[in-house]
Fold these 3 entries.
Entry 1:
Amino acid sequence: MDAFYASVEQLDNPELRGKAVAVGGSSQRGVVSAASYEARKFGVRSAMSSVLAKRNCPDLIFVKPRFERYREISQMIRKIFFEYTDLVEPLSLDEAYLDVTENKKGNPSATLIAKEIRQQIKEKTGLNASAGISINKFIAKVASDINKPNGQKTVDPEDVISFLEDLDIRKFYGVGKVTAEKMYRLGIFTGNDLKMKSEEFLTKNFGKSGIHFYNVVRGVHNSEVKPHRIRKSLGAERTFNENISSEVFMLERLENIAEEIERRLKKSKVAGKTVTLKIKYSDFTLQTRSKTISYYISDKDLILELAKDLLYQEKMKNSVRLLGISLSNLNTEKNEDKEEQKEILVQLKFKF
């Protein structure tokens, strides 16, 4: 979906149409969750501090997020997807992968299917969507950003390599700002530059991600569309517009994050045993601290108590720009383990 949260607000409130809109808080420590395309022209982006966003765009209009409304429209859109295929893998409220190799419409053209789906979304919700079509998830994801907003891009099998070779490295899905800057220092600016590097070189400089980069630039990405992904963890994090060094302020932020996690856990009807605290310092170094207990929890107070223990576990190295909490080792994994055990038992039965 194109600028989903902001577009929903403009859809529901005609007075906002054609204007620079940011979904998020307008306070000193507020952060932009989403920005309309009118706002993006001024450099307003998601995760940007509200203060900086307002400085870039003085006429920016802030709107509080309405997640229930976004979920409602997201469900309408997913119903459209399921008219074409059951192989739908949602990534978030506004994005999903679809495998239409075999589809309910019997349409041999994925390009035409994408066009139909986008048209249906427009007719039923009034919102614009963009699409990427190709041989695997990685290339489709990259292609979906090429003709935004309200467009689509098909990368045919014979064009995959040339498409990736010409691509700016910043447009490779999974290459963030920090990774891009590191690649620049190594002389990697385009897909072709990346392709010229050996697997050994990429692994040495990027670890396991190096193997991923080596494969995807050659058009290799074997991840299937998984419609029934079992959730492995659930979390939330906050980036601050000003670095904080006071533990009092940190505890306030952690309390807000714990409340958000509790809400998500209750909605998903899950609980977990392992709490992980994520800390990103002002110099962008990242640290995680985890603690596992013997029982499942989903209560914000218990989550916060464990997060506090992890916060005080050792002295802060620097001022902090991001805090996050995640809960893993979820009770959803018990069902997965049972299925794996069943499969092993079946194998043993046949073996003996």
Entry 2:
Amino acid sequence: MPRMLDVSDDVRAEIGDEEADLLLRGETAPGSYDCTSCRTPGDSEREPTSTVLFVGEETAVLAFAHGRCIPSQVVTVSEEQLQGAVASITGESPATPAAGAPTADVPRSEPGGQAVLGITSGLVLIDGDLHPALVVEPTAPIARPGTTGPGDDFLPLLIEQGFIPVTDTAELPSPLAGWSVLLAGGQLHAVLQPGGEAGGQVAWWQAHQALSVTEGWRQAVNKTKRVLVYAAPVGSIGQQPREDLLRDALDKAAAGGKLVAASMPLAGT
């Protein structure tokens, strides 16, 4: 039976016309599925469904999601990240309970050594609405590529990428074209940025292991379809155990001119 599938041009180019046509005819596409964005059931025979192709160095995995949650697209991730996404999609990865605001770290190769970006998820109240947010803070100063420091160029580098300095956390950050947040199996996997001349997207931040987010955070992101990403230099925010304390830290960083932000859509799942 034909499926109500959306197969984007990028996905079709990766999987080939033959496989795309088989999907659309329903020969290889599942009827029912769990949306890899919101984790609720979907039916490709009865409702618009997006095909999302995760592409790693050696493998590619096709996933399905509600058309209302995310569009059909190709998402480039590392092979390790892809395996984590597969485990989340198939439900094979163990649940990792998080106390307080969940955090994760990823090594970042920088001149003179390695810096680590910590990331915290939380909800931010703006104009009476709760918005899903991520707060990024390095554990050490970030040097500009090609230099050895000792200055911290984390915020200037992000501003060059299109992040906007925040003076008032009560205002919604501006959308940042080409960037997005990768959620797979209801867990946070990466923040993606434009891939440059190669096209597509590449990971700017990746979790070592898929990062659990709260049910409230998932509900908020399924409603807004966007994530507010805040970034501050080392020592500006800290590991805050509650969202009210996280908001206070954001307010203080903004007042001190040490906060930038952008709004990003969901990518992949």
Entry 3:
Amino acid sequence: MTVWDDLVGQQEAIDVFRAASLAELASSTSHDSAMTHSWLVTGPPGSGRSNLAYAFAASLLCREGGCGNCSDCTQVAARTHPDLSSLTTERVIISIDEVRALVQSSQYSPAVSRYRVIVIEDADRMAERTSNVLLKALEEPPERTVWILCAPSEADLIPTIRSRVRSVRLRVPSVEDVAALISSRDGVDAHTAERAARHAQSHIGMAHRLATNPEAAARREETVRLALNVMTVREAVLAAARMIEIATDDAKAITEERDAQELEHLRKSMGIAEGDAVPANLRSQVKGLEEQQKRRATRSLRDGLDRILVDLLSVYRDVLRIQLGVNEDLINVEFETELRAAAAARPSEDTLATMEAIAQARERIDSNVAPALAMEALLIRASRSEVSA
């Protein structure tokens, strides 16, 4: 089993990275045209950008080109390899200090492998000033340092960085491919895996969560029912409030367990037994962790709201398909009766307008507009479509 085996629906991208790593294995120099020192992996959320980046990192650090079984591959999977540095942020943006630290570490020679590999997940979260710090490192990289950036699209990075990286674009994997992965990897039945992959719209991480977490699946079902039952302005306001509650509950479910594990690990590392008070001279470390967790909770809530909006978009996408006479490939086929009722209650022009309102709500929330206002405006727009029809 190699590091490439669990990657779904990205054979073209895998071929590019595999050719680069094999070319380097076959040559004593790094001048092969298949290999370069700066890469950008782009693709929609859930397409497996970071998974592919770390698989490529393993293939460069492994003596067998990514066998998947050796200590190098195991350490890359655990993010503990001495020649691997990675940066992923729990906040809305990547700080300039974090990038400066990475740039400094990129100057060191590899400790045990052929390369020092640096992966930046969510590189689109860098401000322009931060991006310029990274740019200097990309312009003159050390001979044995490889940068791998991940972002939704090339347009999310400044032009000067785009001109200095080799871009590899990922596509959305098929529902069938994601369902097969979830079924084999997570041990769920084929029906559950297919439904989760379809509801997640081929987002691998979300498909895993919907297939293995009944509470997450139930929250998504409630979101769809709320959207399909909004008929009046009052119902729209109530539905918006409930959706924010759902997003909050979902964010708490994701973060609470991790927060507790991190706090327990910190207490153990400081030698503090369970139930003992934290000494005064160590409280600043606990406080720092708590502040970091609060920032992560803020991002998790924002991500949860965005997931709800993506689910709403799938609902109106299904409605529009029915209105246009395309009855195949519905995402929310379990709600077909309600979808057909919604399709009959409004013209297709209003459905399109509602889908545009969803896109606008996503932009507003991303721009720090109060979530309650953005959700209310969206659902009131949807309810007016129903009333006018």
